[in-house]
Amino acid sequence: MAKLFWFVITIGLVFTNSIYAMYPFNQAQNLSFMDLDLEEEEAHELGNLLLVGLTLIHNAAAKGAVCLDGTLPGYHLHRGYGSGANSWLVNLEGGGWCNNVRTCVYRKKTRRGSSLFMEKEIPFTGILSNKPEKNPDFFNWNRVKLRYCDGGSFAGDGEDQAAQLQFRGQRIWAAAMEDLMTKGMRFADQALLSGCSAGGLATIIHCDEFRGLFPRTTRVKCLSDAGLFLDSIDISGERTLRNMYNGVVGMQGTQKNLPRICTNHLDPTSCFFPQNLIASVRTPLFLLNTAYDSWQIQSSLAPPSADPHGYWHDCRLNHAKCTRPQIQFLQGFRNHMLNSIKDFSRSNKNGLFINSCFAHCQTERQDTWFSDNSPVIENKVIALAVGDWFFDRAGVKVIDCPYPCDNSCHNLVFG
What we know:
Blueprint (H helix, E strand, L loop, with lengths): L1 H21 L4 E3 L10 H8 L2 E7 L17 E5 L8 E6 L8 H7 L13 E4 L17 E5 L11 E3 L4 E3 L1 H14 L7 E7 L1 H14 L7 E7 L14 H13 L7 H4 L21 E6 L3 H8 L11 H5 L6 H17 L1 H4 L5 E5 L10 H4 L6 E2 L2 E2 H9 L6 E3 L12 E3 L1
Parallel strand pairs: 4-6, 4-9, 9-10, 10-11, 11-12, 12-15
Antiparallel strand pairs: 1-16, 2-3, 2-5, 3-6, 7-8, 13-14
Helix pairs in contact: 1-2
């Protein structure tokens, strides 16, 4: 019994860490994670999670494809079977960016910058689950999670010798794809590239490259979850996210790896914003985003640096505490998002699911991907919308009505 107890506790910590990896604050759907007690049912569920081990890419170092601190990159692979034996889902891990020496030096001492600190096993849930009742269309595919340790959405190629920093995201991407091709991905008859947050941005950047790995006969599509970061004006009239992206692009040397169709007429920082990339992506692309993305509200629209008097403090943590003028400001952000996808949405090959929730990343959490009370638009949950689009069962371009009309949301409340 003692061994079983410590096994359940260990699994619980791994699961909790994976949640915090996506959400660096204490949060949950309309609750706080500050009081996380394992009830008997929850412990049973954690014990049933699929844990997948870390594989380091041993030939990556010879290609200069290393994490910020020079260690080997890695991924987690769970093999497919049956009808999914030749189908591949590659998921790009998210986790923000580093935009200067200080933040990158800090980052290289974490799992976001070094494989020395990466979990040796992680749980596969949501779109990565191996259970048909939790992941109906992709459960028996070959499913991969590529770990994120470059701080530049897998797009940089440079270094800072004085600070002992390696910015090799593009090389990590290439080395990982080459390694996966030798593991059987070259035989894929269908493939989906996905990612959430910074991984969702990376999915947009690399979507056409991913398509280029396969023959024309292979069905290849891309899914960006919470990757539609907007070049928006914050509450102080500044452009906080653009300033941060300036640092990422300038320090990491991403210009040569961004799509030339964009950099030929816009500056490199503008081409790190998805709104300037999505219309030119040739491969079918699905955008899954909340209209009130909680990360963008906290870090881009109303960051503490833009709110010295704390007027937005409560609203930033809990949408229910927003004043009417604050909600009106957020409605303006939603309008900006809808305007940015107009050209993209005209293509029949693309898909959309824009729900009016205060959340961030919905494919990798089981409760938002596919469960009894998952978020819906027009009575369709996210997993089925993505599946319908990928397999051409139906066209999917759904946009929610403005807040507060959707009562199916799993809104995040920060403690």
